[in-house]
Specification:
This protein is mainly α and 344 residues long. The chain has nine helices and six strands; from the N terminus they run H-H-E-E-H-E-H-E-H-E-H-H-E-H-H. The protein is globular and about 70 Å long. It has a two-stranded antiparallel sheet with strand order 1-2. Strands 3-4 form a two-stranded antiparallel ribbon. Strands 5-6 form a two-stranded antiparallel ribbon. It has one domain. The structure holds heme C (6 copies). The site of one heme C (HEC) has 25 residues, from helix 1 and helix 2.
Amino acid sequence: MAIFTSDGYACRRISGVLSLPFVIASLLVVSAVPADSAYYHDLEKNRQPCGDCHTLHYSEIGAQPAKTEAGGPFAQLLIRATTTKLCLFCHDGSDPKAPDVLGPVTMYGGSGDEHSGAGFFGNSGGTANDNGHDLGLNKSSVPFSSLTNVTLSCASCHDPHGTPNHRNVVTAPAGGAGVGVVMGTDVFREIAPGDPPSAGASITAYKESNEGYRADSSRWCTECHDDLKPHLAGTARTENHHLADVAINGATYPTDPAHWTGGTGSGFGSATGDGVEGVPRIRFQAPGAVDFASSKLPAPGNQVMCGSCHLAHGGKHKKGLVWPYADSGSPVDKDSGCQQCHNF
Ligand code: HEC
Ligand code: HEC
Ligand code: HEC
Ligand code: HEC
Ligand code: HEC
Ligand code: HEC
């Protein structure tokens, strides 16, 4: 599929020239979202100036404009050569208000959580990394996917101009109808980000435990990893992959729902990699959740989801896994996540 460009953006409405009708059209699209949704990079409420990311007259000035990278003008009139570079300008840990997504990440140390909801990338792009998604590298094939020749950028998954979705994720990362993951419906949070943002508020807002899940985040992953789509719905397991979006206490499942709900013993622990077997309770979906509190309640009917085992950006462990299941050697936590549900 050719929809992913080297900038990774799925829908390039214009290239290079910013014409007035297009600006108006894109503002109209943005203003179609509900007025009360509060997300950052929210242009409807003018929360982030266009000039943070675009420069309209790079070449006319005759010299490199302030705050831009040398060598422009760049595609889409960006102030950096690529979208990912632009995003990482703030999100690489150098701006304490912007959640750091580039490893090693220290901002969540002392927060009580080991990482953010998405974890982190191993590098700023162009280099393969076994521990999660690779940025800026062409992949001729994609695991569990019919997509070919994909180069990921931040904008493959996030709309820089904001969406009503949780974390501004794009509704249709692979084109088509897509699936929204809407804050307050599919995902809940306890504490909103700071407005204006502050270093302390960003730690609290973006740490993993500030989110609870109800539905659709696995379905969103399967927009790109479409080979895993059929594995979401059924109760009878006919596929060769671990299911997602199914309840831990489903009839005939080889699980131990009471052990999961109890939260002690095999698999459960206070920290990953502390030398004692067990990791903090992994993430789950609560299908009947109506708010943050109900989304965090351990129960036999909780569902396993992609995020139970994987971090969206990546992390410390192979395949972006939450615990060292696929790492070499025999760390004591190797089977811990599995044991929380299975308790063999
Ligand atoms: C957080 C950074 C950021 C801000 C703020 C921002 N943009 Fe963008 N904009 C981008 C990026 C990144 C792209 C290119 C996405 C890609 O293709 O990778 C883009 C692309 C565009 C495009 C090309 C069409 C499209 O949607 O791809 C237009 C038009 C545009 N922006 C207008 C605006 C206007 C007008 C504002 C202010 C109201 C604004 N942008 C604010 C980052 C930003
Ligand atoms: C000028 C600095 C800056 C740039 C450039 C920037 N960001 Fe941000 N971003 C921030 C800050 C600061 C926050 C935290 C906002 C808050 O907590 O209210 C944030 C928050 C976010 C969030 C979380 C939003 C939420 O409400 O959950 C996402 C996702 C994000 N940025 C993605 C991007 C992407 C993708 C790009 C590149 C297109 C980008 N950012 C460019 C500063 C920036
Ligand atoms: C493969 C898709 C994907 C790519 C590529 C991606 N993100 Fe994300 N990102 C997500 C998802 C999904 C979440 C929400 C995870 C959760 O908490 O459930 C997220 C969360 C975030 C957050 C909230 C803080 C956190 O760590 O949880 C920020 C900020 C962010 N992304 C910025 C970026 C930036 C900047 C880039 C490029 C360097 C990027 N993302 C690339 C999927 C992606
Ligand atoms: C925009 C399309 C896209 C979306 C959305 C997406 N992925 Fe991926 N994924 C890719 C591509 C491309 C690769 C192959 C290259 C790589 O390893 O980054 C990949 C690879 C992976 C890998 C292997 C990583 C490794 O280190 O070998 C895992 C695990 C993964 N994805 C899980 C997820 C999960 C979980 C989600 C949802 C949070 C998700 N993906 C959403 C495109 C996507
Ligand atoms: C119960 C845990 C678990 C769940 C749930 C889960 N995965 Fe995985 N995933 C793994 C493990 C473990 C691996 C490492 C390879 C293996 O053991 O099969 C993996 C590997 C992968 C890979 C890389 C395959 C490769 O060949 O490099 C992708 C992509 C992936 N998973 C995507 C997803 C997506 C998307 C979902 C949700 C629909 C999901 N996974 C749900 C545990 C899980
Ligand atoms: C959050 C709970 C949860 C976690 C964590 C979990 N599982 Fe499962 N597991 C389930 C559920 C629910 C089923 C039944 C659905 C299915 O068959 O996929 C299941 C089924 C299985 C099956 C049986 C498949 C069959 O053919 O009947 C195997 C094998 C398995 N899991 C292995 C693992 C391994 C290995 C891990 C760790 C990498 C793991 N699980 C982590 C909940 C979980």
